[in-house]
Amino acid sequence: MESISIIGGDLRMVKLAEMLNADNYQIYTYGLEEARMDKNIEKSSSLEEAIAKSNIIVSSIPLTSDDININTPFSKDKIHISDVAQNVKGKTFIAGRIDEKIYNQFNDTNVIDLLKREELTVLNTISTAEGAIQIAMEESTKTLHGSKILVMGFGRVSKILSNMLKGIGADVYCETRTTVNCAWIKAYGYKPVLLDELDETLGEFDIIINTIPHIILDKDRLNLLKRDCLIVDIASNPGGVDKHAAKDLGIKLIWALSLPGRVAPITSAEFIKETLENILKDIKSN
């Protein structure tokens, strides 16, 4: 029976542990002490014990919020990344959104970032897009049907999101830097907005959903918005909006990180499991 240790993480990791256990993997956990899960899943008494029992160590997505500790919402104890790195030498460590400077702590370890796996990235776009729409529906004072909505960026998430928004009757605009993407945006039936021309149209939108992890909506651009415009920022840190300026201007901003884990943890866990099993096949074939 193959063993896997799961260190920290949110409800996705809890559900992943249960799914793997149901598939006859031997699962050991640490940093999930307060989670309700199947009784036959072993909760290790120490980090060292959990890591020692497996050659495959799976951890949080994202791995950390402060670059020091692993994310552990189901534990009162902190798990230092440096302690994990010291104990996983010679093993495979798998987590999500691992910063380059954190990679450097893991010597003699096979480190794999789940969010750099194409299959998981693509599958996660679905729950991310649905989550963004859920927030927009809850927080906007208007129906999305008929609303003029700007999607900032035209990557994987934006394409799925724009398609969903169009399907519920929104008037969808997509921001992009390139004229090539403008052609694709038109082909999909949306309206393109070049970044260089963004200032000319910002005052028209009821809702803006940002997917770009760079500050695009600075104070000057925020000043151009309608004061009842809702902004939903789903980009990773630092996001795409000047948060202090938005607050000062009285613009409603929702910064929604890690939507797959919040809106669809079971589906997200299924996607993670599928990706993890692909990784295990790759390891065995090498």
Backbone structural class: alpha/beta
Query: In what order do the strands lie side by side in the largest sheet?
Result: 3-2-1-4-5-6
Give the low-confidence spans: none
CATH class of the largest domain: Alpha Beta
Question: In the CATH hierarchy, what is the superfamily of the largest domain?
Answer: NAD(P)-binding Rossmann-like Domain
Helices and strands, in N-to-C order? EHEEHEHEHEHEHEHEEHEHEHH
- Radius of gyration based on Cα positions: 21 Å
Largest sheet features: 6 strands, parallel
- Per DSSP E runs of 2 or more residues, the count of β-strands stands at 12
Specify the number of helices: 11
What is the CATH topology assignment of the largest domain? Rossmann fold
Explain what this protein looks like in three dimensions.
With 286 residues, the chain is of the alpha/beta class. It folds into two domains: 3-114 and 264-285, NAD(P)-binding Rossmann-like Domain (Rossmann fold, 3-Layer(aba) Sandwich); 121-255, Rossmann fold. Helices cover 38% and strands 18% of the residues. The protein contains eleven helices and twelve strands. The chain has helices spanning 11-22, 47-52, 81-87, 100-103, 118-139, 156-167, 179-188, 219-222, 243-249, 259-263, 265-285, and strands at 3-7, 26-30, 42-43, 56-59, 92-95, 110-113, 148-152, 171-176, 191-194, 207-210, 230-233, 252-255. The strands form two sheets. It has a six-stranded parallel beta sheet with strand order 3-2-1-4-5-6. Strands 9-8-7-10-11-12 form a six-stranded parallel beta sheet, with helices on both faces. The longest helix has 22 residues, at 118-139. The radius of gyration is 21 Å and the shape is elongated. 41% of the residues are buried. The mean pLDDT is 95.
